[in-house]
Specification:
Helix content is 74%, strand content 0%. It is an all-alpha fold. It has one domain (2-159).
Length: 160
């Protein structure tokens, strides 16, 4: 069991290091397209949409825009930073083993916050789009849903 935890801990540390490095290298404004499958299919942001940009803004020192993209980005970046810092401490795995059950509970609580935020954001975007523009960053990138609507519009226009 200890070997499994050790492998899990090592994997989390390397993924955290990669996530922070990617956040530092990626442009904070993102690209002109979305990689989110849910967003590409529905046109609505998933609960985690904006986390990558949020972490990218935090790593580059822009906390305000980080909160605008996703408020849980601060928590994600902090946890990733803790795991990266564990590379430099000899007894960090002992700390992980001792507090693993609390870390798992924290993970579930954070996942709940992300889900609730995503549900509220999706509701606001669908039912109160004017308010959503003020309180949430809404995604304006072209996605598969957008291209599908455009294709249907052009097909209907060509028939008439």
């Amino acid at each position: 069991m200890r070997e499994l935890l050790s492998d899990r801990f090592r994997l989390i540390r390397f993924l955290s290091l990669g996530g922070l490095a990617a956040g530092w290298m990626l442009p904070p404004a993102g690209f002109s397209f979305s990689i989110c499958i849910f967003y590409n299919l529905t046109g609505l942001p998933c609960p985690a949409c904006g986390l990558t940009r949020s972490v990218s803004h935090i790593v580059q020192g822009d906390f305000l825009h980080s909160l605008i993209y996703h408020p849980a980005g601060v928590l994600v970046a902090a946890v990733m930073l803790l795991f990266v810092l564990s590379f430099f401490f000899k007894n960090s795995s002992a700390f992980y083993y001792r507090f693993e059950k609390y870390l798992i509970r924290f993970f579930y609580a954070a996942a709940g916050v992300v889900f609730i935020f995503g549900a509220v954001r999706a509701y606001m975007i669908v039912y109160e789009p004017e308010a959503a523009e003020i309180y949430f960053y809404t995604f304006h990138e072209k996605n598969i849903y957008f291209y599908f609507k455009e294709m249907i519009f052009h097909l209907l226009k060509a028939r008439s």
